[in-house]
């Protein structure tokens, strides 16, 4: 072990300097605390469980199978004021982990989160009765919360001449910003910290990043983290995208979401969720847990330029920052899962950023998951990362489907289109997620 000859230690409101003197007071008492803090901040954080629901799958294995087989599942949803509208709808069974009363009193986002949390814990082999509930944290990324419930309450009382006696007394707990995470803690009896992270469509990644940081700080010993979205339950979200000219349309709903295709014309709004169990590597190894991968790099930054239009320069900076944290070069990345939403300009801007960072490299493959499931908003980053995790084992890169005519402005080296591709080996996955008001997030996972 290398001898420490000098250091500065912050003790409360004063700094104590150690210059190697043997009789320096305080050192013997605190040197081990100092080293423990440094060690904790550098702890490796790993994924040990995945629970999800997506429009085309309610387990990771089903989701992965449909991605490799090229199976999308978008359907028509009957919306207030708008009629039949294409949407990505999940078909999981909420009664698997909730009573009918709890489902009625809670939110769709809460039910999605509860389902995913239970499935993640089961996948990880974690029994909550064996854990200290005060040492478990719940960190859930969301795009928005409350709009769905409020819009639906207004619609309901409109049927009664806007008589507020018909306004639900469950409205306030349904719409507070911490709702999805809070519903999870109530359902599971978790007494540690919980909160949601409002980060637009970058939120799924940011839920994971928050969990990693809390584990490294020693605030929790187990984290349930990722993202959820109930966006399809409100006509206002659809109407807003439609008024922006960003809501996609096509005769076949499964062909609407077509990132990088010349004829793309907008997004498909979808619901979904994906939560992970994250642990320190030392804890996971101690209990001989299955490990999907290690989060080795991450970054969050802001465009600071426009509420809607992406900034490729800032996106590129975010990717580079994540690579730097991971101590990786661009050519070390095996899969880049893109955020591309199938909007005419957004896809081009992301491609500009990717071309700036990544050179032509035969081992770096690029794909997209929204072409299968639409845009799951706050859940997008977490779901899209999950869809690629099995590549560490099966060495397949799932495709971007519906690319009939590649847009020349979206040409990228090794963009996997329409059919999955088998490769020699996959060791690193980089996942991008960008959102409105210019929030960007990147997560890098490495095979152990």
Please identify, by name, the CATH architecture of the largest domain.
3-Layer(aba) Sandwich
Global morphology: globular
Strands across the major sheet, in which order?
7-6-8-9-3-10-16-15-11-12
Q: What proportion of the residues form beta strands (DSSP E)? A: 15-25%
- C-alpha termini separation: 25 Å
Uncertain stretches of 5 or more adjacent residues: 1-19, 31-35
Write the SSE topology.
Layout: E1 7-11, E2 14-18, H1 27-41, E3 45-53, H2 60-69, E4 75-79, E5 83-87, H3 100-105, H4 108-124, E6 136-142, H5 147-158, H6 171-175, H7 179-188, E7 194-198, H8 203-216, E8 222-229, H9 235-243, E9 272-280, H10 281-286, E10 293-302, H11 312-326, E11 335-338, H12 344-357, E12 365-368, H13 370-373, H14 380-389, H15 391-394, E13 396-397, E14 421-422, E15 428-435, E16 439-446
Parallel strand pairs: 6-7, 6-8, 11-12, 11-15
Antiparallel strand pairs: 1-2, 3-9, 3-10, 4-5, 8-9, 10-16, 13-14, 15-16
Helix pairs in contact: 4-7, 8-14, 11-12
Task: Describe the fold and architecture.
The protein contains 15 helices and 16 strands. With 448 residues, the protein is α/β, with parallel strands linked by helices. The protein folds into 3 domains: 35 residues, no CATH class; 242 residues, Peroxisomal Thiolase, Chain A, domain 1 (3-Layer(aba) Sandwich); 150 residues, Thiolase/Chalcone synthase (Peroxisomal Thiolase, Chain A, domain 1). The protein has a 10-stranded mixed β-sheet with strand order 7-6-8-9-3-10-16-15-11-12, sandwiched between helices. Strands 1-2 form a two-stranded antiparallel ribbon. A two-stranded antiparallel ribbon has the order 4-5. Helix 4 packs across helix 7, helix 8 packs across helix 14 and helix 11 crosses helix 12. The N terminus is likely disordered.
């Amino acid at each position: 072990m290398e001898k420490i000859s000098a250091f500065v230690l912050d003790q409360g409101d004063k700094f104590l300097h150690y210059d190697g003197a043997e009789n320096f007071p305080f050192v013997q008492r605190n040197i081990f605390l100092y080293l423990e803090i440094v060690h904790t901040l550098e702890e490796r954080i790993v994924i040990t469980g995945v629970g999800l629901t997506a429009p085309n799958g309610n387990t990771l294995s089903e989701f992965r199978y449909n991605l490799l087989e090229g199976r999308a599942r978008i359907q028509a949803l009957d919306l207030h004021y708008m009629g039949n509208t294409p949407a990505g709808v999940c078909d999981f069974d909420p009664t698997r982990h909730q009573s009918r009363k709890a489902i009625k009193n809670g939110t769709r986002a809460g039910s999605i989160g509860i389902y995913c949390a239970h499935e993640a814990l089961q996948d990880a082999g974690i029994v909550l009765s064996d854990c200290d509930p005060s040492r478990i944290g719940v960190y859930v990324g969301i795009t928005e919360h409350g709009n769905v419930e409020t819009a639906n309450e207004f619609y309901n009382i409109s049927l009664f001449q806007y008589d507020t006696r018909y306004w639900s007394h469950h409205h306030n707990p349904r719409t507070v910003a911490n709702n999805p995470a809070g519903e999870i803690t109530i359902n599971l009896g978790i007494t540690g910290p919980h909160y949601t992270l409002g980060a637009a469509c970058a939120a799924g990644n940011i839920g994971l990043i928050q969990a990693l940081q809390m584990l490294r700080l020693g605030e929790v010993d187990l984290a349930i983290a990722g993202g959820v979205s109930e966006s399809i339950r409100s006509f206002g979200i659809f109407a807003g995208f439609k008024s922006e000219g960003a809501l996609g349309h096509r005769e076949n709903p499964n062909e609407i979401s077509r990132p990088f295709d010349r004829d793309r014309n907008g997004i498909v709004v979808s619901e979904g969720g994906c939560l992970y169990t994250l642990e320190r590597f030392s804890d996971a190894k101690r209990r001989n847990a299955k490990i999907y991968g290690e989060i080795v790099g991450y970054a969050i930054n802001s465009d600071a330029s426009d509420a809607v239009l992406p900034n490729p320069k800032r996106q590129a900076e975010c990717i580079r920052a994540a690579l730097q944290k991971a101590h990786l070069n661009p050519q070390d990345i095996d899969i880049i899962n893109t955020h591309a939403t199938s909007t005419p300009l957004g896809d081009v801007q992301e491609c500009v950023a990717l071309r700036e960072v990544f050179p032509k490299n035969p081992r770096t493959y690029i794909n997209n998951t929204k072409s299968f499931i639409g845009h799951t908003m706050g859940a997008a980053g977490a779901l899209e990362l999950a869809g690629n995790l099995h590549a560490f084992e099966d060495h397949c890169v799932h495709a971007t489907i519906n690319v009939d005519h590649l847009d020349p402005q979206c040409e990228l080296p090794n963009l996997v289109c329409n059919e999955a591709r088998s490769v020699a080996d996959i060791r690193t996955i980089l996942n991008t997620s960008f959102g409105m008001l210019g929030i960007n997030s990147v997560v890098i996972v490495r095979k152990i």
